[in-house]
């Protein structure tokens, strides 16, 4: 059996050797052979391919020990088995391994490039196998799909990403008992991003407006996630030259902050100021692009004065806008952006419950760790002491509707 295994490997590597690959030591080949035998000897009711399991497991072990050449050699051979047996549900794990941080940190640029080319070829091959992908989706967990989207985003495979995210979006009604509102809206955000990456701006706008409306209706204008989608929507407006709509949106956020009865306790101290200046800078950018304000300049001056009184701090930025007319006429600074839509750094759909704040912009966490949990509707009474008992009851009822009823009602097409 060993002779057959060795002969099969030698024939395979002769036909499939890639640039920058080094020889695979015979001792390692023997160790891999023993691993395959061990897997084959184990009883497994799943009836999955033992050699494929052994192969992906061995690739993972090599990556842990940073033996990238051996990992790639076994990955090549394992992929040939996947193709031969049609077990394409396994190919995604192989892709995750070959695009891991250990591979990207490997100092051999030639081998890194060879591995990158190989993973691109796998993606192109798999993306064309619709039946294979369908089976793979049904067997992948949400965490695995999350990693796949991150991988596709990194590879800029927008058409296939759209297929997956649209498929997930279409599944939201069927999974309303298990998917949280956070997960559904994260999928919606990625769908907006994918539409934009494909230059389908009208569809991105329509979807983002719908999601922002529902968050605002249920949680209020100043909820961190509402603000997150308001910021995304403003960037979509400016990207599509709807500067008037961007100004209206920013003004509404500022007016909510100026309303002392709605002063948010969800936001940490000082975040209100970050939000204020983020909205003002988008207003300023939109005005510079449109050539005029949406409303009278005096109305903005009055609004800024109210905000200054409410959120006055020893903050240098307040000094910058002491003369609002002078400040608004100055060119915007890139450090205050982005003012138009930019693709996310990481295309994840799972996020932590904590919000990452960057310059007043709450954004989806860049390092996904776990599925978001459904928050208790009673949290509303803890975070907003300014509401009356009747208002709290109404909001709790709205939250129940938002988290437990079908998403079809909330996010209808």
UniProtKB/TrEMBL annotation:
It comes from the Eukaryota. The lineage of its organism: Eukaryota, Fungi, Dikarya, Ascomycota, Pezizomycotina. This is Uncharacterized protein.
């Amino acid at each position: 059996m060993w002779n057959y295994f060795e002969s099969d490997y030698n024939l395979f590597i002769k036909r499939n050797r890639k640039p920058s690959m080094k020889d695979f030591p015979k001792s390692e080949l023997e160790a891999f052979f023993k691993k395959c035998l061990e897997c084959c000897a184990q009883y497994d009711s799943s009836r999955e391919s033992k050699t494929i399991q052994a192969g992906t497991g061995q690739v993972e072990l090599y990556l842990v020990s940073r033996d990238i050449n051996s990992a790639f050699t076994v990955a090549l051979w394992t992929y040939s088995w996947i193709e031969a047996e049609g077990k394409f549900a396994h190919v995604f794990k192989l892709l995750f391994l070959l695009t891991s941080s250990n591979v990207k940190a490997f100092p051999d640029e030639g081998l890194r490039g060879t591995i990158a080319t190989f993973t691109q070829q796998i993606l192109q091959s798999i993306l064309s196998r619709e039946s294979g992908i369908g089976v793979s989706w049904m067997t992948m967990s949400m965490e695995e799909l999350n990693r796949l989207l991150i991988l596709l985003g990194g590879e800029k495979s927008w058409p296939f990403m759209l297929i997956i995210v649209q498929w997930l979006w279409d599944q939201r009604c069927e999974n309303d008992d298990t998917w949280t509102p956070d997960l559904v809206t994260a999928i919606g955000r990625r769908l907006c991003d994918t539409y934009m990456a494909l230059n389908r701006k009208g569809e991105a706008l329509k979807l983002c407006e719908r999601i922002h409306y529902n968050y605002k209706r249920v949680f209020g204008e100043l909820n961190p996630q509402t603000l997150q989608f308001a910021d995304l929507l403003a960037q979509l407006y400016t990207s599509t030259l709807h500067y008037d709509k961007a100004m209206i949106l920013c003004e509404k956020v500022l007016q909510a902050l100026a309303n002392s009865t709605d002063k948010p306790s969800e936001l940490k101290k000082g975040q209100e100021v970050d939000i204020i200046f983020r909205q003002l800078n988008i207003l300023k950018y939109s005005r510079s692009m449109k050539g005029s304000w949406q409303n009278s300049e005096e109305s903005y001056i009055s609004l800024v004065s109210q905000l200054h009184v409410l959120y006055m701090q020893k903050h240098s930025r307040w000094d910058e806008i002491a003369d609002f007319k002078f400040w608004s006429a100055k060119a915007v600074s890139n450090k205050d952006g982005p003012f138009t839509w930019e693709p996310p750094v990481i295309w994840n759909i799972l996020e932590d419950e904590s919000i990452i704040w960057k310059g007043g912009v709450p954004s989806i966490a860049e390092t996904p760790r776990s599925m978001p949990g459904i928050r208790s509707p009673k949290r509303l009474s803890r975070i907003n002491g300014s509401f009356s008992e009747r208002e709290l009851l109404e909001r709790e009822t709205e939250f129940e509707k938002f988290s437990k009823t079908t998403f079809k009602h909330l996010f209808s097409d």
